[in-house]
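Below is a filled-in request sheet from our internal design queue. Each sheet records the structural input a requester submitted and the sequence that came back. We keep these sheets so that new team members can see what a complete request looks like end to end.

REQUESTER: design group, bay 2
PRIORITY: normal
MODE: inverse folding
CHAIN LENGTH: 363
BACKBONE (tokenized):
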């Protein structure tokens, strides 16, 4: 007798910041034309923030959980802090279901909608429609606004104050206005503009465009009056503007332009993907910075020189000859640079580098 594949669906649930939510089999939509019952699930992807826990232990992606285990499953939401907000108010968990014979063809989605704080006169909170993906347009005030667009292609403007704008799903346009703002695009192709003040911009998934603005705040120490831009996944475009900015393209082939000021371009091991190339429009004094694990694993020079070892597995070759502006990373460690297998950075504006701390200064 043939078996019809089971199907799953979508389940949104609400949870307070920092709270724990107990789950069970009912949290994972299941339907089967043959009348079979749910036997197990497979975790396709985990929420970006917070933790999925089984008997208090973290669950990993691709883990298979029997239906009897689901009563011991729970989600720990991230704790919201205005001084250090998390990336998104909707955390996505995707999964497949199994009827004992086969897995569902499509993934199901369990969305955790994190409840925003109560709106007050001094700290206004505005949210779009979480039930329907509407295109919202909203302007804030001169106070510290918190705006959450949820679904749809939203246009959010913070105006004055230290604002927090979250586009969530959809192709959103976020404008921070004056003040030190935090802008998070979420999923979709978003455009984020920080404008004046020390801003932090996070594109999220999708191909995003980020503009830091002028960042002309009073100097109060290293990094003051500068913007932090993080493209996340996708092929992003990041523009720092004035001030000393931090630009992190993330995964994908990104275009990074710090603008005026001495800017930093940050990289971690997760940012170095095969067949990807970042383009950096740099000026003298800008720096390429690497996280400690990545920097400690780099060997400057050709991997064919025989100097690669377990402690320095990735060869980094500064541009020379016909390509003085190309920085090559032999990430698959095969002793040669091949574009489709490795990662590179194309420098525009400056071509010389020198070691400086955990990275290189451009001259």
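RETURNED SEQUENCE:
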């Amino acid at each position: 007798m043939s078996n019809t594949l089971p199907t799953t669906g979508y389940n949104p649930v609400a949870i307070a910041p920092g709270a724990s939510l107990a789950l069970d089999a009912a949290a994972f939509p299941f339907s089967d034309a043959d009348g079979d019952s749910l036997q197990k699930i497979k975790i396709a992807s985990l929420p970006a923030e917070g933790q999925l826990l089984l008997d208090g232990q973290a669950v990993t992606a691709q883990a298979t959980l029997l239906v009897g285990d689901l009563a011991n499953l729970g989600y720990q939401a991230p704790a919201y802090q205005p001084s250090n907000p998390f990336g998104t108010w909707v955390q996505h968990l995707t999964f497949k279901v199994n009827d004992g014979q086969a897995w569902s063809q499509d993934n199901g989605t369990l969305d955790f909608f994190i409840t925003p704080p109560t709106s007050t006169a001094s700290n206004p909170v505005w949210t779009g429609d979480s039930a329907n993906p509407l295109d919202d347009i909203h302007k804030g005030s001169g106070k510290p606004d918190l705006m959450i667009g949820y679904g749809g292609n939203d246009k959010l403007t913070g105006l004055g104050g230290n604002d927090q704008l979250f586009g969530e799903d959809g192709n959103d346009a976020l404008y921070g206005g004056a003040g030190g703002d935090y802008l998070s695009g979420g999923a979709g192709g978003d455009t984020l503009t920080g404008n004046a003040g020390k801003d932090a911009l996070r594109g999220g998934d999708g191909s995003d465009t980020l503009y830091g603005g002028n960042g002309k705040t009073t100097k109060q120490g290293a990094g003051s009056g500068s913007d932090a831009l993080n493209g996340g996944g996708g092929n992003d475009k990041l523009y720092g503007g004035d001030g000393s900015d931090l630009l992190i393209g993330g995964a994908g082939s990104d275009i990074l332009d710090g603008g005026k000021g001495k800017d930093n371009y940050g990289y971690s091991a997760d940012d170095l993907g095969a067949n990807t190339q970042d383009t950096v429009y740099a000026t003298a004094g800008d720096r390429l910075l690497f996280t400690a694990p990545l920097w400690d694993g780099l060997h400057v020079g050709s991997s064919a020189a025989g100097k690669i070892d377990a402690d320095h597995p990735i060869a980094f070759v500064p541009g020379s000859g016909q390509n003085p502006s190309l920085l090559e990373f032999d990430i698959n460690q095969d002793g040669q640079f091949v574009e489709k297998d490795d990662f590179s950075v194309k420098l525009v504006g400056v071509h010389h580098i020198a070691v400086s701390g955990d990275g290189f200064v451009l001259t």
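SHEET NOTES:
- Residues 209 and 237 are 5 Å apart (CA to CA).
- The chain has two domains: 10-114, 125-362.
FILED BY: M.R.
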